[in-house]
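Retro notes
What went well: the complex prediction finally ran end to end.
Inputs used:
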Amino acid sequence: MSERFPPLLFSILCLGIAILYIPILVLIGYSFNASELVNVWGGFSTVWYTELVHNRQILNSAALSLEIGVVASTGAVILGTLAAIALTRYRAFRGRLLLTGMVNAPLVMPEVVTGITQLLLFVSMLQFFGWPHRGFTTIVIAHIAFCTAYVTITVQSRLLSADRSLEEAAMDLGSGPVRAFCEITLPIIAPALAAGWLLSFTLSLDDLVISSFVSGPGASTLPMVIYSKVKLGLSPDVNALASIIICVVGGCVILAGYFMRRADRRRQLEIQMAGR
Amino acid sequence: MNVGAEAFAPRRRASGREFMERYGHWLIILPPLLFLICFFLIPFAFALKISFAETAIRVPPYTDVLSITPDQHIHLSLSLANYKYLLTDEVYAVSYMYSLRTAFFSTLICLMLGYPMAYAMSRSSKATQNILLLIIILPFWTSFLLRVYALEGIIRENGLLNTALLRFGLIDHPLKIMRTTLAVYLGIIYSYLPFMVLPLFATLEKLDHTLLEAAADLGNPPWRAFLDITLPLSMPGVVAGSMLVFIPAIGEFVIPSLLGGPDNLMIGRVLWDEFFNNRDWPVASAVAIAFLVLLVGPIALYQHYNVKDMEV
């Protein structure tokens, strides 16, 4: 800590962090509660975790959510990276303003609005083309649409800081634009792609509102199942499920941060070595 | 791409290369552009169209706006009934005003809590900064729904807060927080605090500290330097953070639905109920369109100050 650090500031910082963390820690604590009554501590137990393994509904919805998350975030990384390249490399093209707007809008668009508009599109498409049926496909498309925005912004800032002259040098030395991009720029923006993928994956895994609108009968994602369970009242197995999700996501974020920082440091080192 | 391409087969190689050089960039631009036009922009046109339809007992549950009559005429039937309904039934105006008020005050509280946090972070050493940043970002990645659920565990009638207060004898009977306006505020502040802190930190971190030292050398007290230098320079962060809390908070559905009571009608929840409970798709579309029109102002403000440091 630096020397100028008033105690009032420090206590507000601590208060803010406490507000952010206490509910999650308490939730994880309660997930090991043996008692079925949520307010009585009945001793340590992992009974709710074993219960989860036998809950078909939760397992099925978790599998569906993971599947949607993988497909949607992969799609979003591809489209988002292309959009980021388009916006950083091509200064003037028809539709640039439109693309910029569509990339930024999902970040501030209320989910209920996005959800209902997309549903109405899918319903009309089904009427005219007989495709897509509401369920996996529609949820994936809807998730790609909003995740693309996050990927674009993540990749864009990385591309802006990437040294374009390296790629130009490679092209001067005779490699084609695609090869120059793949060998020079892609490794530089790779951490941003990974971060974008992870961010999309967690966003997709977490989405309740948009999925509820565009999903059809029979396709319930994990958040939809959790929401309906919570709406009915507290249930101890949701505590266990929530703890697992929070720990897995938290672990992934910490690991991703660690690897990205390490990759960055190595790159810095290489640049220094090359500069000598 | 070109129907006549086979006829010019010998020239294809050269022109192919030329073609790539002239139009190659469209291969990069078009996929995201077309995808977003199809699945993000066009949906709004459909919502607009269906907001002029009427409810009908059929699949999908609304009447045709555009139809072709048996004698081959295109028939357009626009019904303004849904919009009229929005204006006459006061539940919509009330819930919209309620959403605005709730979003405004929770943004204000987030700002008052988040600014000192971001300021303290920006003043700490680089190593501490990285750890604090991770601490703030971690909940931002954690499931929104689960965090709202976790908060319920604290504030419900037999939750941790009441249990602790009762045990220490500070209160006689449990406080009723769940299903009240207070719970909605707590939920929004708890969920959106990282969205406020991160952009604020991004601008405060870049602040030139020599300016503050210069102000101090010239005899200004620290609070004066803060008001005259730090605050104006951090305005982009204040606006970005506030809009990132305010805009989604207006349309919030999960928080009023899980933590709020029946009278905490926020516009997102009204739209949801209209759609899922009343099955009135045209009215729900009209609510969405009206909501969007009312959001144009805040969204434009956000785009204007758009800081690009929101990436993790």
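What we learned: The mean pLDDT of chain A is 86.
What to try next: split runs per interface for comparison.
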